[in-house]
Design goal:
Layout: E1 8-9, E2 18-19, E3 23-24, E4 31-32, H1 72-82, H2 87-96, E5 99-100, E6 109-110, E7 114-115, H3 138-179, H4 184-199, H5 202-233, E8 238-239
Antiparallel strand pairs: 1-2, 3-4, 5-6, 7-8
Biased composition (Polar residues): 162-174
Keywords: Metal-binding, Repeat, Zinc, Zinc-finger
GO molecular function: zinc ion binding
Length: 240
Amino acid sequence: MEFPDLGEHCSVSSCKQLDFLPFKCDACNQIYCKKHYFYTSHDCKEAHSKNKLVPTCPLCNEPVPCKRNETVDFAVSRHIDEECSDDRAKKKRDSVYSNKCSLRGCKQKEAIPIICDCCRRNYCLKHRHPSDHKCENAETVKTGNMASKNAASAAIERMFNSKKQVSTDDQNSAARKLQGSLSEEEALQRALRMSLSNSAQTGEARASDKIQEEEDRMLAKAIAESERDYNANKGKCYVS
């Protein structure tokens, strides 16, 4: 008499034996018979997660502990990159982490250079800010930026004053040319005719004034944004 629903078949393709007391592998969770329930018997692919053997480093021959669910290859590779005492491993680490912190007493090295924007020296992540390594040039850079800003403001003021002076000189010169050798009445009539002819150009002059005002506004906005960026970025370092 057969019982088709009783027991389970072995998961090994070459076996498939019906076992009434099957075994479940605690690594791959497959069902096996008594003959194939060992890890080595069914070539379990997850056996490494249950393997408690401690691998040995091929360079320094020291035991390498594995974390839970960590492969042996990954553990050995991590050991070589971080802890191995062999000269070959040390040379590799020194070639990668060659950017030593410039702060006296700090031996930290980074894989990429972190240059202070004020003193142009290399520092680690912990000491990258000017306040962390007591940067001597931070105040000098701040003073230089303020001087540049003041010089720019003075240049803009001189430009505006120069335009006003040129406009006044042009008006005086035009008045002298208009007077010339004419009598006062003739000069007045000529001035009226010129005023009428210039009225047609008033619209263009106003448009030109608006353009000039817009340019002045944009220039003032650019200076304000530059000052705001400086205040936001002061005390920061940049990774090059």
